[in-house]
Design brief:
With 204 residues, the chain is of the alpha+beta class. The chain is 53% helix and 17% strand.
Length: 204
């Protein structure tokens, strides 16, 4: 069930009706920025034959090249770790971010190889304060031609370099909140180093 949820999250983030190669503009409106990121990545995935053949290593390369520059993964990790983040050394913090990135990559890579031409995303009209520095962009995703739309939300923050995504919500489940509970349990039992070790351990 967890894999299905997170597969849906990333498929939604990477899909759209207009698969263009336009370079994302982090200074644009947040709805435009999210659409541009999705368009660029989907275009790359659809054109790459190695992705279609199930090459997860190539998927991870695309993630590094086209997704991570638009995501504040450190903030995602910090919020998921909660108060324990402040107790970690800079070295532990860096290791935790790297380990969390690996966990997300392993969770998502298989789903990304299954993206097809029928998968689409529609960004919904923006709600909220257009001048705010922290906003939510809503969308609906259709994974296959006859499936019911999945509601997805993206939380973004405005930085000096423009918008960055740091949290995703699918069907009322926020990624950070979901991992915060798991992180807290692992930290209480084994500390920050134990959490890092658990995240780095491939799932069987």
């Amino acid at each position: 069930m967890r894999f299905k949820i997170f597969a849906s999250i990333l498929i939604g983030f990477l899909t759209s009706a207009q698969a263009t190669a336009q370079q994302p503009d982090p200074m644009a409106a947040p709805t435009v920025f999210v659409q541009q990121v999705a368009d660029q990545v989907l275009n790359a995935l659809k054109k790459d034959g190695s992705v279609r053949s199930g090459d997860t290593a190539r998927v991870n390369e695309i993630v590094d090249e086209l997704i991570l520059p638009n995501v504040n993964l450190e903030k995602t990790t910090r919020l998921a770790a909660g108060r324990s983040w402040r107790d970690a050394t800079p070295e532990q913090q860096a290791a935790l971010v790297k380990a969390f990135r690996g966990t997300l990559g392993r969770t998502y890579s298989g789903a990304l190889t299954k993206i097809d031409d029928a998968t689409t995303m529609k960004v919904l009209p923006f709600r909220g304060d257009a001048e705010a520095n922290d906003v939510v962009v809503r969308s609906q995703v259709t994974q296959f031609s006859n499936s019911s739309p999945i509601q997805l939300d993206y939380r973004l923050e405005k930085t000096p370099k423009g918008w960055r995504i740091y949290d995703i919500n699918v069907e009322n489940i926020w990624l950070i909140e979901n991992y915060r509970n798991q992180f807290a349990q692992q930290i209480n039992q084994n500390g920050i180093d134990g959490l890092i070790q658990a995240l780095n351990k491939p799932k069987q």
